Amino acid sequence: MTRVVLLLAPGVHLLDLAGPAQVFSTAAGLGRPYRLDYVGERELIHSAQGLPLGAETAWPPDLGRDDLLVVPGWHSARRGPPPFGDGTLARIAAHHAGGGTVASVCSGAQALGEAGLLDGRRCTTHHELQDELARRFPHTTVVRDVLFTTDDRVVTSAGIASGIDLSLHLLSVRHGPALAAQVARSMVVYARRNGDEPQASAVLRYRSHLDDTVHRVQDLIDTRFAEPLTLDRLAADAGVSARTLTRLFTRATGGLTPLRYQQTLRLERAEHLLAHGATTDTAAHEVGFTDPRMLRRLRARNAPA
């Protein structure tokens, strides 16, 4: 069972909290082993929108490296330090030091900074809070105009609804793009805001359209991206000709063919495996490349200039 611990500050924004909670609870409803815990320094937390929320003051015991700690943002974060005591900040830092992932939504990045997790790392926050974050934590690199950043298991997202995008990305990294796409469709969140973020999941970047035929084909590719998939097979499953599918797909995704979309998913998954210690040969085999040289060529082609 993977725990998702949501740390609630006084004045927590409801959507900062509800977005990640909905993503992971939807994944749990689809059979993934997620359990959500709501923790705070007091049992009753008043949200920024006035709704009172209950929280546990005792943290779940024995959080492990596969568990996720999420800090949603709160109102008036620019006034003084984050509303957490030293003990809570120490727990945030300890979870990361133990190999766990720590994520923030909006002003929640302030708590990560106070816990010492932003020094030397890239991060982001709500556009109205970016200057303040950079001032408070001069040893971090605040990335502007992006939905979220990831840097050594420290994941920060921009304002409010971007917590949904962050959480879908984490699902895609942990379980592959098919689950993230399934959760996104269940939540009716195909559209991407600011889709130029290079670290965003391909499942999300290329779902900002309303073409049901293309969505069906993407669902198939997302589920079986490591398998050989011919254009004729995809077209037959969609009930259209290969020529029509190519035309619809490239129009909906901004220029990608079905094959290029599949390669993008393979490359994204391979990069994750490589970052976690896999060899190029192992990663290539895992994502469906019979020849590791193909993975090397794709990585070189997509490397920053």
Explain this structure.
With 305 residues, this protein is an alpha/beta fold. It has two domains: 171 residues, Class I glutamine amidotransferase (GATase) domain (Rossmann fold, 3-Layer(aba) Sandwich), CATH 3.40.50; 97 residues, Orthogonal Bundle (Arc Repressor Mutant, subunit A). The chain contains 13 helices and ten strands. The strands form three sheets. Strands 2-1-5-6-10-9 form a six-stranded mixed sheet. About 3% of the residues have low confidence.
How much of the sequence lies in strands comes to 5-15%
Strand order of the largest sheet: 2-1-5-6-10-9
- Classified by CATH, the class of the largest domain is Alpha Beta
Number of strands: 10
What is the gyration radius calculated from CA atoms? 20 Å
CATH level 4 superfamily of the largest domain: Class I glutamine amidotransferase (GATase) domain
How many strands, which pairing sense, and closed or not: the largest β-sheet?
Answer: 6 strands, mixed
How many domain modules? 2
Shape: globular
Domain HTH araC/xylS-type: 215-305
GO molecular function: DNA-binding transcription factor activity; sequence-specific DNA binding
Keywords: DNA-binding, Transcription, Transcription regulation
Protein name: Transcriptional regulator GlxA family, contains an amidase domain and an AraC-type DNA-binding HTH domain
Task: Describe this structure in a few short sentences.
Keywords: DNA-binding, Transcription, Transcription regulation. The chain has helices spanning 14-29, 86-97, 109-114, 130-136, 162-175, 177-187, 202-205, 212-224, 231-238, 242-253, 258-275, 280-287, 292-302, and strands at residues 2-8, 34-40, 44-46, 52-54, 68-71, 101-105, 122-123, 141-142, 148-151, 154-157.
